[in-house]
Amino acid sequence: MTTRSTGKRIALATAVAVVAAGTFAAGAGVAGADSRGKAHKPARTATKAQVLGLFDNWNAALRTGDPQKVADLYAKDAVLLPTVSNNVRTDRAEIVDYFEHFLRNKPVGTKIESVVNVLDRDTVIDTGVYEFALTDPATGEKNTVKARYTYAYEKQPDGRWLIVNHHSSKMPES
Questions:
Q1: Which strand (E) or helix (H) includes residue 71?
Q2: How far apart are CA 144 and CA 133, in angstroms?
Q3: The pLDDT of residue 28
Q4: How many whole angstroms from its chain centre is CA 168?
């Protein structure tokens, strides 16, 4: 191969690379624009403090004593594996049913340990240990249940964060 043909190939390869880079940049610009051609800001991901605040909202809903208000914090296709029930809850009616019974004990939750993982701008997981102060409705006797938990949240199109998966289990060791 001659030096002249090698030079042409290098020039051609360079030209193809420049065109490809320009095409990619143009595509990225279009992908990041709305229908009017205006660029829109990428959505912010949730902060750890915001994710921890989601539990505070859930705990406040518990204190209302209204199982419907608690169930409003769950997505319509959420899964609840509750602390004090053997039944997996997979729809709103089942979730409401669980909280109708659980709320009779006037639960007040307190987080002991929390690990937050922000998976992407629309999905977060909060795992850890919490405890519930419970009051027996028949006797007034108070006790505390310590449990492990996992909440998986998804940001909805309207901006609300809803629980899509909630697992809670009593600690196996006393």
A1: helix 67-71
A2: 5
A3: 40
A4: 16
What is the predicted pLDDT for the residue at 25? 39
Task: Tell me which residues of the chain have a pLDDT lower than 70.
Answer: 1-43, 174
Q: Which residue has the tokens 């605040």?
A: 53
CA distances from 122 to 34, 44, 77, 162 (A): 20, 9, 16, 10
The tally of CA atoms less than 13 A away on the side-chain side of residue 57 is: 17
Q: Please say whether the dihedral angle defined by the alpha carbons of residues 22, 23, 28 and 33, taken in this order, is positive or negative.
A: positive
Q: Where are the beta strands (DSSP E) in the chain?
A: 74-81, 108-120, 123-135, 142-155, 161-170
Angle, alpha carbons 112-113-114 (nearest 5°) = 130
Q: Look at residue 154 in the predicted model and tell me its pLDDT.
A: 98
Q: What's the CA gap between 123 and 62, in Å, rounded?
A: 23
- Locate tokens 């992908």: which residue? 31
Closest CA to 111 of 67, 148, 136, 64: 148
What is the pLDDT, as a whole number, of residue 24? 36
Sheet holding 161-170, edge to edge: 74-81, 161-170, 142-155, 123-135, 108-120
Beta-carbon neighbour count of residue 167 at 10 Å? Answer: 17
